[in-house]
Design brief:
This protein is of the alpha/beta class. 44% of the residues lie in helices and 14% in strands. The protein contains twelve helices and eight strands. An eight-stranded parallel β-sheet has the order 7-6-5-4-3-2-1-8. Helix 7 packs across helix 9.
Length: 245
């Protein structure tokens, strides 16, 4: 899978223009292609891309079913737009909006209950990497939010490993660092759900993955694609990354 995460970029009109460009260009991709758009784009872009290989994700959803939560958007609302995926646990949500493992566990469950497929993000910050605690951090994030799921539920989960120190910094984990962590994550899944489930789990790399380094990162056996930030905002760059998979 190659998934784009537009973050807080693009007006509705700009987003429609980018989605139209992708619609015209992505015909027979070798992998799943997903674009994560701001909430206001979802219904329009999902309708525009209906019947194409490009699927649509929300960048978040609420941890409540419905009610007096001004400004929040529920998983049911996201699903009603035609979006099929939901990005959850992104490091920016954890850092800026204080999303805890418990909050994320609720979001994942609500997404699944509404037939959305979570793209669940995990990863360590710079200080944790420098202290050699990256494995410990990633294991705790999985155990705190998604290892409560049944194997049947897990089949709808895509993971995205994002070394937080490499997001938007221009730094990128080396292919060796990415492979090492992805292999470790897959071993944790195998311990929990068995080898077959682990082998069938898609684990994406996110963290300054771009048109220049995508092919090298994707060549690793345990790197199944990418969660792409800035490089997903320009169709030519995003298309190059899709081709690299």
């Amino acid at each position: 899978m190659v998934a784009g995460n537009w973050k807080m970029n693009k007006t509705l009109q700009e987003g429609v223009a980018l989605a139209t460009e992708l619609k015209q260009s992505v015909k027979n991709p070798k992998c799943a292609v997903v674009i994560g758009t701001p909430f206001i784009h979802l219904a329009t872009v999902a309708e525009l891309l209906k019947g194409t290989p490009v699927k649509v994700a929300a960048e978040n959803c609420a941890d409540k079913v419905s009610g007096a939560y001004t400004g929040e958007v529920s998983a049911a609302m996201v699903a009603s737009t035609g979006a099929e995926y939901c990005i959850l646990g992104h490091s920016e949500r954890r850092a800026y909006y204080h999303e805890t493992p418990e909050i994320l566990r609720e979001k994942v469950l609500l997404a699944l209950e509404n037939n959305l497929k979570p793209i669940f993000c995990i990863g360590e910050v710079k200080e944790e990497r420098e202290a050699g605690k990256q494995n410990e951090v990633v294991k705790a994030q999985l155990e705190g939010s998604v290892f409560n799921l049944s194997a049947e539920q897990w089949a709808n989960i895509t993971l995205a490993y994002e070394p937080v120190w490499a997001i938007g910094t221009g730094l990128t984990a080396t292919p060796e660092q990415a492979q090492e962590m992805h292999a470790y994550i897959r071993s944790l899944i195998a311990e929990k759900y068995g080898n077959e489930v682990a082998d069938n789990t898609t684990i994406l790399y996110g963290g300054s993955c771009n048109a220049k380094n995508a092919a090298e990162l994707f060549a690793n056996p345990d790197v199944d694609g990418g969660l792409i930030g800035g490089a997903s905002l320009k169709a030519p760059d995003f298309l190059t990354i899709i081709e690299a998979r």
